[in-house]
């Protein structure tokens, strides 16, 4: 009887999230409501009932840099933490397929609360799109023009344009960019695309751009910012986290949890993809309060002997990269948090 009661509530929470929540978030919602239930029990009931969250898919390349553009320094260095709102904004753009053609989505995310403070779409990925998102963010947040706010982006030609950089200077915002071709240097923005495409885009085929716009509005403004809880925020939504901050209700434990989560993710990224900004000894300079980075191998430009042309081994066949259709069923259907 108890399993039946819990399963009914699990179905309600799963349906209220639009079928997005997996066992970690459903368990967190139940605990917030005072239910004394373990996560393994929630996982078992969801598995027996065939209920699962959604999982991310493969990424596609959308950043096309212009080699002639002047680049800003990296002021973040993969440390996506902030002491308060409007200290660090991360931004990026991505493409969403529709029946009418590609729809480009650009957004700005606050590193403190993980809130999407501004977003805009267009059928063209140009500087006007990213400038429009910046204008929306400035009008909604009104940050001080004292160079305390960092605007971090990748090397897309839209973010190195004169139009955007001039607007940042006039607004008293410092521009920041990571290294070339390194998505880990803008991981917080890339994480947002993974979440949006997993929980909103991949589950629906949009016939028109207007239909995709409506779905994005319902997800970002109606669910992600207001109701979607996150573990790093103490199982709060971004709006709840910012409200607690402004009310002085955040404890030292909450801030420590946020820093610990960011440091743990940064350590995983360093283990999988070491920072190329290495010193002569082949190690990265650790940031304050962070763990030493994993030693890296010398870059190709630093090697003494140049490499000759690559030779394909005669005993192996030509390598064929798998397509999405060849992915295993387990990878497609695994439960996501």
Tell me the layout of helices and strands:
Elements (H helix, E strand, L loop, with lengths): L1 H15 L6 H10 L6 H11 L38 E11 L2 E10 L5 E7 L4 H15 L7 E5 L8 H9 L2 E5 L9 H15 L7 H16 L13 H9 L5 H21 L56 H5 L4
Parallel strand pairs: 1-4, 4-5
Antiparallel strand pairs: 1-2, 2-3
Helix pairs in contact: 1-2, 1-3, 2-3
Q: What can you see in these coordinates?
A:
- Helix content is 37%, strand content 11%.
- It has 337 residues and is of the alpha/beta class.
- Among the domains are: 2-49; 88-222, 2-Layer Sandwich (Nucleotidyltransferase, domain 5).
- Strands 3-2-1-4-5 form a 5-stranded mixed sheet, with helices on both faces.
- Helix 1 (2-16) packs across helix 2, helix 1 (2-16) packs across helix 3 and helix 2 crosses helix 3.
- The longest helix has 21 residues, at 252-272.
CATH C-level category of the domain at 88-222: Alpha Beta
Low-confidence region ranges:
278-337
CATH architecture of the domain at 88-222: 2-Layer Sandwich
Counting helices, strands and paired strands, the structural category is alpha/beta
CATH homologous superfamily annotation of the domain at 88-222: Ribonuclease H-like superfamily/Ribonuclease H
Number of DSSP helices? Answer: 10
Overall number of strands: 5
**Topology order in helix (H) and strand (E) letters:** HHHEEEHEHEHHHHH
With strands numbered from the N-terminus, the spatial order across the biggest sheet is 3-2-1-4-5
Q: Report how far apart the termini are.
A: 27 Å
* Main beta sheet: 5 strands, mixed
CATH names the topology of the domain at 88-222 as: Nucleotidyltransferase, domain 5
Principal-axis shape: globular
Strand content: 5-15%
* Helical content band: 25-40%
Mean pLDDT across residues: 80
What's the gyration radius in Å? 22 Å
